[in-house]
Amino acid sequence: MRIVDIIKKKRDGEELTHEEFDYVAGEYIKGNIPDYQIAAFLMAVYYKGMTNQEIVYLTKLMAKSGDKIDLSNIKGFKVDKHSTGGVGDKTSLVVAPLAAACGVKVAKISGRGLGHTGGTVDKLESIPGYKTQLPIDTFEDIVNDVGVSIIGQSANVVPVDKKLYAIRDVTATVDSLPLIATSIMSKKLAAADDGIVLEVTIGSGSFNKTFDAGEKLARIMVDIGNAAGKKTVAVLTDMNQPLGRTIGNSLEVVEAIELLKTGKGDSRLLELVLALTSAMLSLAGMGDINSCKELAIKKLKTGEAYKKFCDMVSRHEGDVSFLRDTSKFYLGVTKEVLAPKEGYIAKIDTEGYGLASLYLGAGRNTMEDKIDFSAGIEVVKTVGEYVHKGDVIAILHSTNKDLFAQSEQKVLESIQIGDILIEPNPVVLGYVQ
Ligand code: URA
Q: In this structure, how many other beta carbons lie within 10 angstroms of the beta carbon of residue 426?
């Protein structure tokens, strides 16, 4: 078999066999296929797609490409949550400790930023000292003792995805349904969770631009999860505006901490956090969605979820004093972006805001790039809000003020101000189970 023939076959739109995917995954991991040929293969998949059968083949091959995360030492119902990627999406930081405070076990393996979207691992690393790479037995111990642990994907867990993820990020091959489905579900199949809640984002800030695309992606991922014996549900969510009021690593961590501490925050973010948490609890058989939601509200209000977060951070060697006093996070220098005219914010091109945040240093342009944790955007005005000319619509943060001009221009290009009040979409668009 030759990789060039497989690339050609995919380029010409033919269906690949199990043996061919086995060859690609196996030889790539052994280092026998160079990155430039994998990049060409990914681009062929991007344009020609994959059949459902191909998606299942590749997902299973990727899942067994490295160590399995056994989790059998963890007592209780183990439930994971994973997002297809969003802008300002810090739900995992709140949902994971909240679900744990309600009584399920959350052993979560998260990713880094991808394309214009942020990653939970990068966000957690903005807490000084927080270790995202831990031995699996330490991870299991933390889940058993605290109820929750969030780590990054180690080199040995689904190594094919780890390598592909980094290449996709820098070759414009992220927003491909089969590549997202195989990437997410291979990681879910490699870990022995009992249940999985998928947050499938839809809209201008998501890789799924239309409802149909999001629903199709959700369907295939839910079917793969259920077929593997894991109770799986997808929550379809609106990403036609940034989620919450911040984009960027430290900024999002601060927003998540404040929500955990006070139970108060942006209403769409709070609603989504409660929807995702109650889906996790309900999968664990803790009652119907409404009673699970009530329990989650209670645990948020009593501060038990915040305590879980502090305990998790402390066991990961993170500096908990930053959680107690969030003013300790360095948030860079700032620049206000002003409304160019009066009216209602009618539309936000959310991907544009994600890119504007990357321009400030919040993400990577190449695999080697270092992130500026302080970089990002405070979303002061969002869809449906009224602004006067000169009102602050966003605040840019960065350690490098030379990056402001390009980012400001992107924010202004991404926002539409009109005369008519446009009601934002609901944040939860539906469920696929
Ligand atoms: N999250 C993942 O883990 N992989 C993707 O491809 C997209 C989001």
A: 11
Number of C-beta neighbours around residue 370 at 10 A: 7
Nearest 5°: CA angle at 344, between 341 and 347?
A: 100
**Which pLDDT belongs to residue 116?**
84
The reply to whether 168 belongs to the active site is: yes
Which is catalytic among the residues 82, 188, 315, 316? 82
CATH of the domain at 7: 1.20.970.10
- Tell me, in angstroms, the distance from the centre of ligand 1 to residue 90's CA: 15
For ligand 1, the distance from its centroid to the CA atom of residue 190, given in whole angstroms, is: 15
361 and 376 in contact (C-beta within 8 Å)?
no
In a domain, 320, yes or no: yes
| Ligand 1 geometric centre to CA of 352 (Å) | 19
In a domain, 60, yes or no: no
Summarised one tens digit per residue, pLDDT across range 9-22 is 999 999 999 999 99
- Active-site entry in 161, 193, 194, 266: 161
Domain hosting 12: range is 3-49
> Is residue 114 within 6 Å of ligand 1 at its C-beta?
yes
Domain assignment of residue 61, yes or no: no
Q: Does 277 share its domain with 341? A: no
Q: pLDDT tens digits, residue range 393-427? A: 999 999 999 999 999 999 999 999 999 998 899 99
